[in-house]
Automatic annotation (TrEMBL):
Residue ranges constituting the Transposase InsH N-terminal domain according to the UniProt record: 1-50
Pfam families the UniProt entry points to: DUF772 (PF05598)
Record InterPro entries: Transposase_InsH_N (IPR008490)
Taxonomic lineage from the root: unclassified sequences, metagenomes, ecological metagenomes
Protein's recorded name: Transposase IS4 family protein
Length: 82
């Protein structure tokens, strides 16, 4: 689910759009390891809220960005358009 939130943030997707994109994009499913079962938008929202309410989200993102930085990987956010 962390990877789901990562992609969602990188592409600036709503919970509903993220659910749709996971179904539509095989690259998303492969990255997320969701071959058939995909979390619905409510599950994505609940997971993010639980992380946020405990402050865990900030710790996770700090750790992820540090790992990317250490590997020299720069991420730029974007938007998916139909």
């Amino acid at each position: 689910m962390i990877k789901t939130l990562f992609l969602q943030g990188m592409y600036n997707l709503s919970d509903e759009s993220m659910e749709k994109e996971i179904y539509d994009r095989i690259s998303f499913r492969n990255f997320l390891h969701y071959p058939e079962t995909v979390p619905d938008s409510r599950t994505i929202w609940l997971f993010r809220e639980r992380l946020s309410n405990t402050g865990t989200d900030k710790k996770i993102w700090k750790h992820i960005w540090k790992q990317l930085e250490d590997k020299g990987i720069m991420i730029k956010t974007g938007t998916i358009q139909d």
